[in-house]
Amino acid sequence: FKQKQKFDDLVGFNWNTWICSNWLATALILEKNKDKRVREVEKILWSLDNFLNSYPRDGGCNEGPHYWKDAGESLYESIDLLNLATDNQFNVYGNRLIKNIGTFIYKAQVTRDYFINFGDAGATLNPDGGMVYLMVGFWLTMYMLIERRLSVRRRIIHAVGVGLIVLMPTVLHQEVSYRTHAIGVVVGMLSALVYYRFARRRIQSVEVSEPLDDMASDTVSEEPWLEVDDI
C-alpha cells in the first residue's frame, strides 16, 4: 500500500475480490487484536471500492463467465461476511451495480452448461461441485456442534433432512464425479471439527441463550453432542 498509485492500476482485476474474500474471512476469524482487525478490514474495503469503481456499469465480467466466480461471486461473499460481522449494517444489495453483477451470470447463460464465450472464457462452464459440497458439510457439522438448544435427535433430523434436500441429485449424469462430491462433504465435516476444536471457547463466549417456546424443555441439550477435545 506504500505504492498506492501503482496499486490503483491493479485493483480492477477480477482476482481482486477473490483475494479480498479470503483475506476478509481470515481477518475476521483469526485476528484477535481489534485495532489490527479494523485496519485490515479498512484496506479490504478500500480495495473492493476501487474494484467497483472500475467495473462496467452493466455488471458484465470483462473476462467472461468463467471468471465471474472469482469476481462477482467473490464480491458477494465479501458482502455477506461484512454483514455477518456488522449485524447486517452493510446491506448494499439495492445498489444497481451490485444487482447487475449478481444477474450477469444467468444472463450470459445460453443453456444448461453453455455460456456466451467472450474474452478468454470457454463456451461451457461447470461449477466446482466439490467446493459446494465441502461448504455444505462444514455448515451442517457446525450446526450440529453449535445448536445446543435442541436435542441431539432433533439436530440429526434437521441436518439429515437439509443434507438430503441440498446434496442428493435428482438426476444422475455420467460426466459428474459424485466421488468428488462425497470427498467434499467429508473434508467439510472434518474441517468443521478441527475449527470448532480450536474456536469453541470463542464461539461459546458470544452465544446468546434464547428459549424455544414451541419446544418441550426436555429437548434442550446443555452439553455438546460431541466432545471434540477427544478427537
Top keywords for this entry?
mainly alpha
Structure description:
By secondary structure, the chain is mostly helical. The protein is built from eight helices and two strands. Helix 6 (129-146) packs antiparallel against helix 7 (152-167) and helix 6 (129-146) packs parallel to helix 8 (178-205). The model is unreliable at 1-5 and 215-231 (pLDDT under 50).
Topology:
Elements: H1 4-8, H2 15-30, H3 34-53, H4 72-86, H5 96-107, E1 109-111, E2 114-115, H6 129-146, H7 152-167, H8 178-205
Antiparallel strand pairs: 1-2
Helix pairs in contact: 2-3, 2-4, 6-7, 6-8
CA-CA gap between termini: 42 Å
Strand content: under 5%
Largest sheet: 2 strands, antiparallel
Strand order of the largest sheet: 1-2
Count, helices: 8
Q: Note poorly predicted spans.
A: 1-5, 215-231
Shape: globular
- Class by helix and strand content? mainly alpha
User: What is the alpha-carbon Rg in Å?
Assistant: 21 Å
Order of helices and strands: HHHHHEEHHH
Please tally the β strands and state the result: 2
Mean pLDDT over the residues:
80
Roughly how much helix do the residues carry, as a percent range?
55-70%
